């Protein structure tokens, strides 16, 4: 039996840096003394780590602390608004979007270009995405990480195994994009990224299923404040639950998938509308065909979501994408279906809410995940970015 290894000095410093930065991120305006009291670290250790974080532009000092009594007054510490940003990219079926968020997750800039990516090869799409990323990088804002959201099954190595709505199979997005822009990227499922945006910037509950509906239907599962990705990273494919085994074929190869019964494209088609704006207009005019189509979609959603709730006992459903826009029309038939089908509804009623993050949820989640990588491990960022004259500061 091997003996446990003693933590190295570097490991301790790495943990302490993360501890201090987390305290500042969680309590903007906190002082050095308050951090020491909160973390249990010595004031000297906190002071040295804070100076390193300031030198790396991860932390900025604010006003002098206002308080009565003797003693030196501390300065308020915040995440630096000029520090490294996260760059989020969404590769959608009909668009490519990018956004920049600061360390606090605030969106600083965004760009969207409409494009039917189904008509283009993956290589062409990745080249255009690389152009969009380079344009964002050229703004002169330091980027500490790039996250990419794709509507498909994404393995942990950044390969899109299949994206039926894009027509992609076995596309190495991570290396394909990194080689074009010269910057490491993280790749994830679009619905998962949207769920993370909802967790960090929206509803904020610790347990919910986020339904993403832009072109197809995806779901992000958040359990105990953490995204549940599944063993291979392929969890949350709500749109490909078969709700009608005798239903129409689906690009995924199955039949009667939820996307074919209640997906955004199918919903607009069955309503007789040209697009979402026309659908909303028809609903406002109380068009019977449009109203019937929305109610039918709500019931099919209820069938699939009831299965998810029964399996996982998740108490909240957050509707995103087109479903957030249609929420007032979807709510009653969806709630009725959940009430009939969820076994535990009598004791734990399911709550359904509309997302407040908006259409940029996927790219915002991807950008914020890139930033949070820095916040959770600032020492790695510190050692890779500090100039020699700054890194000579004494290390606790």
UniProtKB/TrEMBL annotation:
| GO molecular-function terms, A-Z | DNA-binding transcription factor activity; kinase activity
Q: Which residues form the HTH marR-type domain?
A: 17-61
* Protein name, per record: Putative NBD/HSP70 family sugar kinase
Q: What SUPFAM superfamilies does its record include?
A: Actin-like ATPase domain (SSF53067), Winged helix' DNA-binding domain (SSF46785)
Instruction: Classify the source by domain of life.
Output: Bacteria
Q: Which Pfam families match?
A: MarR_2, ROK
Which protein family is named in the record?
Answer: Belongs to the ROK (NagC/XylR) family.
Identify the keywords attached in UniProt to this record, alphabetized.
Kinase, Transferase
């Amino acid at each position: 039996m091997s003996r446990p290894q003693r933590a190295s000095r570097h490991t301790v410093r790495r943990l302490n840096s993360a501890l201090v930065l987390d305290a500042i991120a969680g309590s903007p305006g906190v002082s050095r003394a308050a951090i020491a009291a909160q973390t249990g670290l010595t004031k000297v250790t906190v002071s040295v780590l804070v100076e390193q974080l300031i030198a790396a532009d991860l932390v900025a000092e604010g006003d002098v602390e206002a308080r009565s009594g003797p003693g030196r007054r501390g300065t308020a510490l915040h995440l630096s608004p000029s520090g490294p940003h996260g760059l989020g990219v969404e590769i959608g079926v009909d668009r490519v979007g990018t956004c920049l968020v600061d360390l606090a997750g605030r969106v600083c800039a965004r760009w969207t270009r409409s494009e039917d990516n189904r008509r283009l090869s993956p290589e062409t799409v990745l080249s255009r995405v690389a152009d969009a990323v380079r344009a964002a990088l050229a703004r002169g804002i330091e980027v500490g990480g790039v996250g990419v959201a794709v509507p498909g099954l994404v393995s942990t190595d950044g390969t899109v195994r299949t994206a039926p709505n894009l027509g992609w199979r076995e596309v190495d997005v991570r290396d394909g994009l990194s080689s074009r822009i010269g910057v490491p990227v993280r790749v994830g499922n679009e619905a998962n990224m949207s769920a993370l945006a909802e967790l960090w910037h929206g509803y904020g509950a610790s347990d919910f299923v986020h339904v993403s509906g832009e072109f197809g239907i995806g779901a992000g599962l958040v359990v105990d404040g953490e995204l549940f990705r599944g063993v291979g990273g392929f969890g949350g494919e709500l749109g490909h639950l078969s709700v009608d085994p005798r239903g129409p074929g689906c690009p995924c190869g199955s039949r009667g998938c939820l996307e074919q019964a209640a997906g955004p494209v199918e919903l607009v088609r069955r309503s007789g509308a040209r697009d979402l704006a026309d659908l909303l207009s028809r609903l406002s005019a109380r068009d019977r065909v449009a109203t019937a189509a929305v109610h039918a979609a709500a019931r099919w959603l209820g069938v699939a979501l009831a299965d998810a709730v029964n399996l996982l006992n998740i108490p909240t459903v957050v509707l995103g994408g087109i479903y957030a826009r249609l929420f007032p029309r979807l709510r009653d038939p969806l709630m009725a279906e959940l009430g009939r089908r969820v076994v535990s509804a009598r004791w734990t009623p399911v709550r359904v809410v509309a997302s407040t993050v908006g259409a940029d949820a996927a790219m915002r989640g991807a950008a914020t995940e890139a930033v949070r990588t820095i916040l959770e491990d600032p020492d790695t960022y510190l050692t890779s970015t500090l100039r020699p004259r700054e890194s000579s500061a004494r290390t606790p």
